[in-house]
Amino acid sequence: MNPPNPAPDVERHLLKDNGPIPNNPRLPLLVYRAALKLPPDDPAAAFEATFARWDWKGQWRNGIYPFHHYHSTSHEALGVYAGQATVRFGGEGGGGITAVVRAGDLVVIPAGVGHCHLGGSPDFGVVGAYPDGHTWDLLRGRPGERPQADKNIAALPLPKHDPVYGVDGPLRQAWR
After folding, report:
1. 2, 38, 62, 139: least surrounded by Cβ within 10 Å?
2. pLDDT band at 11 (very low <50, low <70, confident <90, very high)
3. Is 136 exposed, middle or buried (0-12, 13-18, 19+ CB in 10 A)?
4. Residues ≥6 apart with Cβ < 8 Å to 84
5. What are phi and psi of 123, to 5 degrees?
6. CB 105 within 8 A of CB 164
7. pLDDT for residue 1 is more than 70
8. Are 46 and 81 in contact (CB under 8 A)?
9. Is the whole-model pTM more than 0.90?
10. d(Cα 57, Cα 76) in Å, to the nearest integer?
11. Which long-range contacts (CB under 8 A, 24 or more apart) does 138-141 make?
12. Which has more confidence, 140 or 3?
């Protein structure tokens, strides 16, 4: 297993409710730059092993949906294992951010925060995972979603561990 890079550069973005997409009123989106040094052969496995070590489950390899969506029943970690992509967080319109993520970066998305793949390199790939065995739903900001989504988001516990750095990682410090 590749150890995480020491002292990660972590960007914190608290995104405001934009109407259709609730975002998260108390937990910031976290972008860890160069969280892992990736091996040349099967770089996705480095994120998978690290996530599993810290009880982030339900892992998958793929990309990010090219439409605005969010999850109300789980937080989500995305470990970029190849290429780069431009991703919009926070939904369409104002109040969100657009970020370029690259191989080795990690994004921790609080429940409710919208995300959409805007474009990237042909080899772009991420490993996704969810904390403590939570399962995810797929919401798109459609009418009628918000009442139950807001309840789900408010009821979610904080993850027990940062997906890369464990108990004392940046997530646990930022999401108190």
Report:
1. 62
2. very high
3. middle
4. 100, 101, 102, 103, 120, 121, 124
5. -95, 10
6. no
7. no
8. yes
9. yes
10. 10
11. 138/69, 138/71, 139/69, 139/70, 139/71, 139/72, 140/67, 140/68, 140/69, 140/70, 141/19, 141/20, 141/21, 141/68, 141/69, 141/70, 141/91, 141/114
12. 140
* Contact between residue 114 and residue 18 where contact means Cβ atoms under 8 Å apart: yes
Q: Which two tokens stand for residue 66?
A: 């090219």
The count of residues in the chain is 176
Helix (H, G, I), strand (E, B) or coil at 161: coil
Structure-token pair, residue 130? 């969810």
Domains of the chain: 9-158 (2.60.120.10)
Query: What is the per-residue pLDDT across 64-120, written as a single tens digit (0 to 9) for each?
Result: 999 999 999 999 999 999 999 999 999 998 789 999 999 999 999 999 999 999 999
Sheet with 125-131: list strands edge to edge: 9-13, 29-33, 106-109, 76-82, 125-131, 56-62
